[in-house]
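Readers outside the structure-tokenisation community will struggle with the description of the input data as it stands. I therefore recommend that a typical entry be quoted early in the introduction. An entry of this sort, consisting of the sequence and the corresponding backbone structure tokens, reads as follows:
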Amino acid sequence: MKRLLSLFFISLTFLTANSQQASFKEDSLQLRKIYNHALLEGKSYEWLDHLSNKIGGRLSGSLNAQQAVDYTKAELEKIGLDKVWLQPVMVPKWTRGAREFSYLQTAPGETRDLNITALGGSVSTPEGGTKAQVIEVQGLEDLAELGREKIEGKIVFYNRPMQPELIHTFEAYGGCVDQRYSGAEEAAKYGAVGVIVRSLSLKQDDYPHTGSMSYGDTPVSKRIPAAAISTNDADYVSGMLKISPDLKLYFKLNSEQHEDVLSYNVIGEITGSEYPDEIMVVGGHLDSWDLGDGAHDDGAGVVQSMEVLRLFKEMGYQPKRTIRVVLFMNEENGLRGGNEYAKRAREKGENHIFALESDSGGFTPRGFSFDADEAQFAQIRSWQPLFKPYLIHYFELGGSGADIGPLKEGDMVLAGLRPDSQRYFDHHHAATDTFEHVNKRELELGAATMTSLIYLVDKYGIKQINTQSQQKF
């Protein structure tokens, strides 16, 4: 009897090993087909060319943003998806107005022009501009130490740089973004008349980087203008203040906040053949800032997400689960699109099991980050060897994406595509975020990588999802 049991377990182990080996080989071949198709017959670069060069910057609530909605909806319809639709969402509308102007008065009658740009959501300066003495700080925490006596009536200059020694540049970004986002709100409490913020970039150049900012609950009458200054000029101003602490800076902004306007999330889907009620989302945000054409942030994520569904259709792959592309509106200055999509999904009782976002630029893909529990991550990490031939090794817990974040509920898994980020903040929210800085091959590799992960999730499901149709890997 013991001999029979031993033979049984040996046979079972042999069969299991053979089955796993067969599955690995099948999946390897499928991923190879995906990469081949994306690199040989990709559409993402062509789509991005149109978004960037025919439409341009897509500031939330603008005519360009609406043109992008119309264009991507039409292109998704051409793919032959089972369903394509627009999801209405009210979004903020802010306009920059005439080009900003600034100078540092270096001596009586002598000035040096500075490269600045209004932060998104900033109020304008008075009609004649704002001119005042500058006080340099390294962060919000310095304000309380200085107090109202040293800040009132002055322009606060936030000059804490991104830390270049940090390999993960998003960590460096996170270490100083509070200056941009809350700098004006906090400085206003001490009587400042304006703020200038060092651009969040690791590159030394003359291009200022815009981005969202907030006044919190500051009354409209107490709000002060806020602008970003280029890294080169930030260093110049800082150096001059060390020589002459009483120097004055002038800046003129012409921005304006308008009433909310109607816009849309663009959505398309392939309905699952076996488990249509299990929904997987892949997406990026359709809006961008207005200084460049938003090629990296986030035109790349938009076209890569569209390409996932196109590749499946072109290859004749019929997913078991419903795969939905969502092109979110208003990530940059409000997250209205992401919040609206999550709200509607809950109202309809939809069962989202997985979401993947691309919003870190169109550079060479390195892997993914995941918001998952340990068992789910163990399952996902078992797929890592399949990506090794493509030099995709980064599979880590921690973070996903802003637009899919509101969807998180229960055992749902979120993921973010992680490209090489070393050059991302050279272009982020700046006039240099343009089409010529996106490499076609890198963009297509990212689309193929996303498609491959979606394929594996579709085939095997996700552990611990409490549905009758769940399959274990």
The chain is about 40% helix and 25% strand. Residues 7-17, 465-473 have pLDDT under 50 and may be disordered. The CA atoms of residues 158 and 197 lie 5 Å apart.
